[in-house]
Amino acid sequence: MSPLLLGGASFLLMFVLIFLQVPIAIAMILAGTLTSAILIGLDPALEIIPIEIFHALSSPELALVIMFVLMGNLASLAELPRDIYRLSASLFGHRPGGLAMTTIVSSAGFGAICGSSVATTATMTKMALPEMMRYGYGNKLAAGSIAAGSTLGIIVPPSIVLILYGILTEQAINKLFVAAVIPAILGVAFYLFAIVYVVRRNPDEAPALDRVGADVRINAARQAFSFLVLVLCVGGGLYSGFLTINEAASVGVTLSLLIAWKRGKIGKSSLNRSILDTASTTGMIYLVLIGAGIYSYSMTLTGLPAEIVKVIGNSGLPPLVIILLLEVMYIILGSIFDTVAAMVVTLPFVFPLVTGLGYDPIWWGIINVIVMEIGLITPPIGMNVFVLYGIKPELGLKNIYLGVIPFAIADVGRLLLLTFVPVLMIIN
To answer: DSSP for 43-65?
Structure first.
């Protein structure tokens, strides 16, 4: 078997293993090790495993993942998401669709301290859905705003997915965070426009609440002060250059711990739970990156990525058409696979292709995350849709899918805008 044919067979084997519910990291390790063993022998192939383990465990960038995951867990323990929601509700609740807008803004805020789309979906379902149901919101708009708003968790810095992209492609993580700011703001704005459109077409979907007084807003802002301080210290320190990204992560964990302690939320069991959740999440991420390193090495041995780049480069298709086709591919993959899995599995092929076409790797990192965001709410699966449905099955799967359509259209609009006008991202 030629190395190129072997590379294709290895890729197919990995996808078969994933479809058989084998964890993505194990699937990559098995496929990568088997492929390398065929090409260079079993002993050299097995030696790659400890090398990749050492590389992952000694990576200073991966310490960021641990810190930001722990910050998110401690912030949730301190009930900061509740404060964000109350503040947003006091500001937007009186508008038609105001609670749905509140959900979008709160999801972006929670994403800034959590970085996980699935965690944001679960949190906002428990917190925002009862409020919208209590005030007579339709199932479609309520479900759509939660499922779509929660996708912002992987684009709003500090994003775990962007950190992983930076590690895998050796790009500066702070540049990725800066480049993600405007796309994240656009994401919120486009979602708010989608809500306005839905409410104008069907006002019964989102009755307006009574306008609250200034005292209520001031009280809500006072309760959310801790969250605002956390975002200002971490985000402001990072973007101003006063803090390095490692220092910003450390400051975030320290402040989150102090806030939770001040609010009386730190107990032996609760702190242990937060630490165990952090260990579980980061352990999974480490294993995925070890698998990605093993698999990427085997693909390099086969020469398949280089051959794909060569074939597509000689196809005569304009570079922009190739980028658009890749975006469609990622939307489909993102609707089927976990976000991290879809990115990690395809980067050995896609990254050299995109950079070979002359595109900025930071720009592609943001585009890559946005298309996977869309996949999170796209049939046939859509991870956020199924998380929401799993928590509240009485909403009905059909209603959830219908509810996310306006938001998915808004996402596509944002994607095309950033694709055709890349200057909107601050890349340099």
So the answer is: HHHHHHHHHHHHHHHT-TTHHHH
Residue 428 has pLDDT above 60, yes or no: no
| Residues with Cβ within 8 Å of residue 351, at least 6 apart in sequence | 168, 169, 361, 364
Please tell me the distance from the alpha carbon of residue 305 to that of residue 340, in angstroms, as a whole number: 20
- What tens digit of pLDDT does each residue of 145-161 get? 988 988 887 888 777 78
CA distance 68 to 113: 8
Give the count of beta carbons closer than 10 Å to the beta carbon of residue 228: 15
The answer to whether 289 and 348 are in contact (CB under 8 A) is no
**Integer Cα distance of 262 and 426 in angstroms:** 37
State which residues form the domain around 235. 3-424
Query: Residues 246, 250, 253, 259: what is their CA dihedral angle, to the nearest 10 degrees?
Result: -130
| Distance (Å, whole) CA 63 – CA 23 | 23
Burial 304-318 (b: 16+ CB within 10 A, else e): bbbebbeebeeeeee
Structural domain total, the chain: 1
Cis geometry, peptide bond prior to residue 207 (ω within 30 degrees of 0) = no
pLDDT tens-place string over residues 201-230: 888 888 777 777 888 888 888 888 888 888
- 230 near 252, Cβ under 8 Å? yes
The pTM score is: 0.78
Give the whole-angstrom CA distance, residue 122 versus residue 217: 26
Neighbour tally for 213: CB within 10 Å: 10
At 43, list the tokens: 């002993």
Cα–Cα distance for residue pair 271/98, rounded to 1 Å:
35
Look up residue 302 and give its amino acid: T
Q: From CA 358, how far away is CA 365, in angstroms rounded?
A: 14
- Mean of the pLDDT values across residues 355-375? 89
